[in-house]
């Protein structure tokens, strides 16, 4: 992109309005990265993001092939299309990385997340929290006379919506696993 030139007497509108609107579109992408399961690999992947100022919205990692000693890192990140392409290219150059898939552009995928939510409530708020948990199919995994811990699995948006409804009812603590994702179909 060529530098912007501002001439004296130009309109008082923001210079950002002069840029190509498509070049600044921020997109969310889910990347599945297959790596060697060895010490330091996760640190190298995270270092790539932090060293270049890229944001990680969600990060999950687990061994997926015990005999082949491979782990899968699922990263949800945001950026312009050019930044996303740069991230994928740089991930592919890290030596213990075997494969980088952008599930967002490779076709339909399934994304799920697990959350635990502690709600401290009494009286009507307690009843309402249970009613909403039933609607969202959240399970009660711990209960005391003044609190519940709910377990909820679903899309990040579903978990956000449930948490938003629980806040005024006494949401006290929230733990989330981050996104786990797989490409749909037989490929």
TrEMBL record:
The keyword Ribonucleoprotein does not apply. One of its GO terms (molecular function) is acetolactate synthase activity. It catalyses: 2 pyruvate + H(+) = (2S)-2-acetolactate + CO2. GO terms for biological process: isoleucine biosynthetic process; L-valine biosynthetic process. It is an enzyme of class 2 (transferase). Keywords: Amino-acid biosynthesis, Branched-chain amino acid biosynthesis, Transferase. GO terms for cellular component: cytosol. It comes from the Bacteria. InterPro entries: Acetalactate_synth_ssu (IPR004789), Acetolactate_synth/TF_NikR_C (IPR027271), Acetolactate_synth_ssu_C (IPR019455), ACT-like_dom_sf (IPR045865), ACT_dom (IPR002912), AHAS_ACT (IPR039557), AHAS_small-like_ACT (IPR054480). Pathway: Amino-acid biosynthesis; L-valine biosynthesis; L-valine from pyruvate: step 1/4; Amino-acid biosynthesis; L-isoleucine biosynthesis; L-isoleucine from 2-oxobutanoate: step 1/4. Its EC number is 2.2.1.6. Catalyzes the conversion of 2 pyruvate molecules into acetolactate in the first common step of the biosynthetic pathway of the branched-amino acids such as leucine, isoleucine, and valine. Belongs to the acetolactate synthase small subunit family. Dimer of large and small chains. This is Acetolactate synthase small subunit. It comes from Pseudooceanicola algae.
């Amino acid at each position: 992109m060529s530098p912007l030139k501002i001439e004296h007497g130009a309109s008082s509108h923001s210079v950002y309005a002069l840029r190509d609107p498509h070049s600044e579109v921020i997109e969310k992408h889910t990347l599945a990265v297959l790596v060697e399961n060895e010490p330091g690999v996760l640190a190298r992947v995270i270092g790539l993001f932090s060293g270049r100022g890229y944001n990680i919205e969600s990060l999950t990692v687990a061994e997926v092939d015990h005999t082949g000693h491979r782990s899968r890192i699922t990263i949800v990140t945001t950026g312009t299309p050019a930044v996303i392409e740069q991230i994928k290219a740089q991930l592919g150059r890290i030596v213990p990385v075997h494969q980088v898939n952008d599930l967002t552009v490779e076709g339909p995928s399934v994304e799920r997340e697990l959350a635990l939510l502690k709600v401290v409530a009494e009286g009507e708020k307690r009843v309402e929290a249970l009613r909403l948990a039933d609607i969202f199919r959240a399970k009660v995994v711990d209960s005391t006379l003044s609190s519940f811990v709910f377990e909820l699995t679903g899309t990040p948006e579903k978990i956000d919506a449930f948490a938003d409804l629980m806040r005024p009812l006494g949401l006290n603590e929230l733990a989330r696993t981050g996104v786990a994702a797989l490409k749909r179909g037989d490929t």
